[in-house]
Each structure stands twice: as structure tokens, then as C-alpha cells.
Amino acid sequence: MVKTQPGVLAASLEKTMKPKIKIFQDMGISANDIAQIISNDPSSLYRSADNRFTPSLSVLKRFLGSSAEVAKVLKISGWFLKLDLKKTLVPNIEFLKSCGVGMDQIVKQIYNFPRFLLHSPEDMKKFVKKVDEMGASRSSRLFIHAVRVVSSMTDENWELKLKHFSDLGFSEDDILKMFKKSPPVFAVSQRKLKEVKEVLLATEKYDISCIVNDPTSFVCSVEKKIKPRMQVLGILHSRNLIKKWPSLATITRMPECKFLEKFVQPYLNEVGEVYMATSELNSERNKKIRIK
User: Which residues have a Cβ under 8 Å from the Cβ of 261 and sit 6 or more positions away?
Assistant: First the structure.
């Protein structure tokens, strides 16, 4: 606290500190949680108890259901005590609900991307308009993810992102299709997008259309997932141990345990050491492979 907010040493214990701590205590928040919330963001002690602290905590508890969940969110981000939630969080939630987004999805965003729902309501409407223009369906559970991704970029950066996809050889229809299929892909760095595309096309097993149909490949780790799996499959294919090269979805979506079960464990003599050397498996999984 002292490192980030030295002024706390001179703050009034009776007027500044105790009233805020008491509000937390009256909500039933534990001492450990209070300590973590305040130490993560000591500036919260300077917020008005009546105009910011109490109203914000009340709003959060209404949406999250319990003091324990409120504490959980505040330990993630102190921004909920900095802004007027009745002018940001509340209208944004009501607007997203009017767009067909379920409350369960909205709550997940509060935990995972707390700043997202604290944009101004005017900006939130602009984000939704942009997503609508990209053709994303409001009935899709991916809709809120699309809005969140758009909200994370300025208009200029968004246009640069679209241009980069175009420079990589994707048509406008391709870009729209990928956005509707996997909005988080549009938050991936330009370097990563280029690297994944080059690695996949270099195999000569996949083309641009394959990537468009399974854009989640862009969020996969090249070194930990794509390359190790490609190397294993390449060995198996060259030795006629698999008849058909798997789809890109197999590379990107199949859980590691399933991939091991289907492509590694039956052929340990051929690919076991290769896979363990190229993928960052933990020691426990390595032991299981050796045992089997």
C-alpha cells in the first residue's frame, strides 16, 4: 500500500480508513479479503463512503448475489469502486440484456474482463453497432465476446486489425466469417496471426479455407500445441500409421489427453520421445506416457 499510495501514512484513521473498512465488515467480507482488496488498490480508501463505496457495493451485490462474490470481484479489480456504477455498469448490463445477452454471460464478463462493462453507455452502444455491422448474431453466445473484443480497441486499431487480416490473404467474406465464428481471434497480435498462418500453410495439409473454417487455430500456442502435434502426425503419416491426415479442428480443439490417447500412446516407439521433447508436458504426464 505504501509503495503505490504513500499518502495512506498521512490519511486520517477515523475519517478515511475506518469508515471504509467498516462498510466491508458490515457486508460480511472477511478480514483477509478486506486486506487484499485495499492493498491491491489503496486509492479506494479515498472514495466517498456515501457517494461511491456504499452504492457501488450495493450494485455489485445485486448482480453477483453475495458478499463473497463481491469480494472476489474487487480482489480482481478495484475499478468498481472508482466509477459510478449506476451510470456505467447498470445501464450497460440492461442494454446488453435488451440485445438478448443472458445474465450468466454478463456476470462472467464482470469476473474475466472487469473494465469491459465500465465503458460509458454511449460507447457500449457504438461497440454493439459495430458488431452488428460485422454480421454477428445477437442470438449467438459469442455475441458478447464480439462486443468485448471490439471494445478493447480504438477505431484506428480495429481498422489496422482488419487490414492485417486482408494483408495475410483473407478476403472480406473470410474476415466476417472468422469474426462470427471466433471473435477472440481478433484480439490476437499481428505477429501471432502471421506465425500461425505460415506454420499451417507450410504443412501443405491446410489452406486458407481451412483456417477460415477453424479460426480458433489463431489462439493456439504454436510451440506448445501446433508444432508438436504436426510433427507427430507427420511421422505417423510418413510411416503409413494413419490413413488420413486429421482436420485442423483435431489439431486445435482436441484436448491433450485425447490427442495422446489417439496419436501418441499407440505409437510410443515411433513418436513418444519426439512428442515429449517438443511439447511442454508436465512431469506427471510424462510419467504416465512412459508407464503406459
Answer: none
